[in-house]
Design a protein that fits this description.
This protein is an alpha/beta fold. Helices cover about 35% and strands about 15% of the residues.
Length: about 325
């Protein structure tokens, strides 16, 4: 029997499969992430960890678990919170949940685009405040989606899935990516352009790039300033891809009309943060993958890989 520590409870019955296999499963009971000191204490003697994006999975944590640690299964596709080199040095397998959250995240990205552009939340608040007195030709005007140009930064699985949704609205698709994607270009009638050209031409820009040293604050003051007047920015990637101070400036002074954000920097945003007071900013609490089916599949993926490694088999979804 091996000990498995899980930093948050998972939906569905996947954890029961670990228990049924004879493993001791210790789940952090709180809704919030465990405090660092508690985390370092609770991982002691664990052969497997199931972690979340908010957990700092570094050498200190691995050493606290001890030499019996065999696998870290990340309940997310992103791994920027995991020290992969430290894991390799200690012979610890790291897995994650690629592919499964593609459509759920693309759905939310497009929902944020539509909500921010057509001022859905602003209109809802307007009604709830009792300010809706009549129909007016100039009430809550916003940019239209149909036939507009959308720029997709990062054209992997999620970026392409987002572009498919945009094509349903007959939007022109531009994309910026390190490598050309000829098959996707043909399928989606998408054109690969330089980042500056994309920002200057697109009515809507959606971010789908991983967080790396190169993409940290990719959307800084200069690049936000290059965007088309009245454009809308959507971020479902990582909060630190966008310079928050520069984003506020672009919303208040131009050229941005609105923003839809599922990820922020800092994350979570304090309740008094000025982004939350801006009428044309829609913020959701990092729920890109929060479709029921998707989250259940993610739970099955991490527990399945934990079972595999603890049984001496290769995991299905190792970190590359």
């Amino acid at each position: 029997m091996s000990r498995v520590f899980v930093t948050r409870n998972l939906p569905g019955t996947a954890l029961e499969e670990l228990r049924a296999a004879g493993h001791e499963v210790d789940v952090w009971p709180g809704f919030l992430a465990p405090p660092r000191e508690e985390l370092l204490e609770r991982v002691r003697g664990a052969a497997a960890l199931i972690t979340m994006l908010e957990d700092r999975v570094d050498a200190e944590l691995m050493d606290a678990a001890g030499p019996g640690l065999k696998v870290i299964a990340q309940y997310a596709v992103g791994l920027d919170n995991v020290d992969l080199e430290a894991a390799r040095e200690r012979g610890v397998v790291v897995t994650h949940t690629p592919g499964v959250l593609t459509n759920a995240t693309a759905d939310l990205a497009f929902a944020l685009l539509a909500a921010a552009a057509r001022r859905v939340v602003e209109g809802h608040d307007y009604v709830r405040r009792g300010e809706w007195k009549t129909w007016h030709p100039e009430l809550l005007l916003g940019p239209e989606l149909h036939g507009a140009t959308v720029g997709v930064i990062g054209f992997g699985r999620i970026g392409q899935a987002f572009a498919r949704r945009a094509r349903g609205f007959e939007m022109e698709v531009l994309y910026a990516s390190r490598h050309p994607k000829p098959a996707a270009e043909e399928e989606l009638s998408a054109a690969r352009v330089g980042l500056d050209e994309l920002l200057e031409r697109a009515d809507f820009v959606s971010l789908h790039t991983p967080l790396t040293p190169e993409t940290f604050h990719l959307m800084n003051r200069e690049r936000l300033g290059r965007m088309k007047e009245g454009a809308v920015l959507v971020n479902t990637a990582r909060g630190k891809v966008v310079d928050t101070a520069a984003l506020l400036e672009a919303l208040e002074q131009g050229p941005l009309f609105a923003a839809g954000l599922d990820v922020t920097d800092p994350e979570p945003l304090p309740a008094d943060h000025p982004l939350l007071a801006h009428p044309r900013v829609v913020v959701t609490p990092h729920i890109g993958s929060a479709g029921r089916r998707t989250r259940l599949l993610m739970a099955e993926m991490v527990t399945g890989d934990v079972l595999a490694v603890l049984s001496g088999r290769q995991p299905r979804f190792p970190a590359r």
